Amino acid sequence: MKLPIPTQPSHTEEERNTLKMRVTLLLLCFIYALKAQNTRVIQTPGLLTVEDGGTIILQCVLDAEGTRCYTVVWAKTDSRTKMLIFPKNGADDGSGSTCTFTVENATLNDSGTYYCSVVLGSMTYFGSGSNVIVTQANRTEPPPVDILWPRSAQPRIPLLCVVSGVVPSEVRVFWVIDGEEDSGFTESFWTKDGGEVVESAQNRVLVPAEEWERGVVCTCVVEYAGKNFSKSVQNEGSPDGCAVLLYGIIAVAALTVIVAIWFCVFLHRGRSVRGDGGEREQRRTTDLEHRHRSGRQERGSAIDPTISEVQYASLEEASLARRM
Questions:
Q1: Among the listed residues 236, 233, 235, 201, the one whose alpha carbon sits nearest the alpha carbon of residue 219
Q2: Mean per-residue pLDDT for 10-29?
Q3: Using CA atoms, how far apart are residues 82 and 112, in angstroms rounded to an integer?
Q4: Residue 103 confidence (pLDDT) above 80
Q5: CA 39, CA 64: separation in Å to the nearest integer?
Q6: How sure is the predictor about 135, in pLDDT bands with cuts at 50, 70 and 90?
Q7: Are 184 and 220 in contact (CB under 8 A)?
Q8: Would the pTM count as exceeding 0.70?
């Protein structure tokens, strides 16, 4: 008995078309992936410095077929907040492959890093970025420099050199500590000036406590607009020792004042006692003189009546004799 040999089912025309479509899509995806890997976004310039009120012009070249400027999105990274911002104006919506981003009447707030990005299928490609620095116009005087350090004792003393009104890319800040150069670490910080946020530069360095206590000279050197200027600082003694010395001086001064007041009071009392004794002695002398005079007057008054009586008796005897 012969068994029937199974035969392969024949593919219908619809199934063959579906298979072809799948293979075609797979090939297209593979080709698209290879093309995406070769896609380049060239962004210029890498660094741009303009004065406030000037114009910012950035370019982005798309080196891929099928990409046009209307597919480009510009983004800005805020240097202060590190947030990604998408500017609403300034992008070129043309159909070419060289795209331009323009900002007129630039302000200090327009400083930051700008990126152009292009969307190609499900992938997004970014340019290398353009660092834009907006500076104050017509600035001739050097920016102010300040050095800050903690008053408390620490194993390593942090020194902070603050250069106000400039960004790190405009200046070179370094330290000279005990005759040796130290680059330190330069970064940006922001302060609010009216309605604008102003970016400034600061450089930090750590000095060993032994060197700081020894009183080494620490100099912050700033190179700006082709000129060098600096500011120095050094330890002038322990804050605790200064406080003890100050309190000691205050205590000695207070004690001196108290002794002087006590001495003045003592002298015043001595003079008062001597004055009272003199007055009492004078009054006593006056009383004695008054009593002496009164005694003499009383004795004189006692003698006069006797004399008068003797004289009267003598007169009577003389008168009697004449009568006889």
A1: 233
A2: 59
A3: 9
A4: yes
A5: 5
A6: confident
A7: no
A8: no
pLDDT score of 144 more than 50 = yes
Q: Are 41 and 59 in contact (CB under 8 A)?
A: no
Please state the three-class secondary structure of the chain as a single string: CCCCCCCCCCCCHHHHHHHHHHHHHHHHHHHHHHHHHCCEEEEECCEEEEECCCCEEEEEEEECCCCCHHHEEEEEECCCCCCEECCCCCECCCCCCEEEEEECCCCHHHCEEEEEEEEECCEEEECCCEEEEEECCCCCCCCCEEEECCCCCCCEEEEEEEECCCCCCCEEEEEEECCEEECCEEEEEEEEECCEEEEEEEEEEEEEHHHHHHCCCEEEEEEECCEEEEEEECCCCCHHHHHHHHHHHHHHHHHHHHHHHHHHHHHHHHHHHHHHHHHHHHHHHHHHHHHHHHHHHHHHHHHHHHHHHHHHHHHHHHHHHHHC
Residues in the chain: 324
The stretch 240-248 carries a mean pLDDT of: 62
d(CA 139, CA 44): 27
Tokens of 169: 């890319």
Do the beta carbons of residue 175 and residue 203 sit within 8 Å? yes
Place of tokens 């002038």: 236
Q: Are 148 and 160 in contact (CB under 8 A)?
A: yes
Tens-digit pLDDT profile for residues 270-281: 666 555 555 666
Output b/e per residue, 188-202; b: 16+ Cβ within 10 A.
eeeeeeeeebbbbbb
Radius of gyration of the chain from Cα atoms? Answer: 56
Name the residue with tokens 């006593």.
284
pLDDT band at 294 (very low <50, low <70, confident <90, very high): low
232 has a pLDDT exceeding 70: yes
The pLDDT assigned to 32 comes to 44
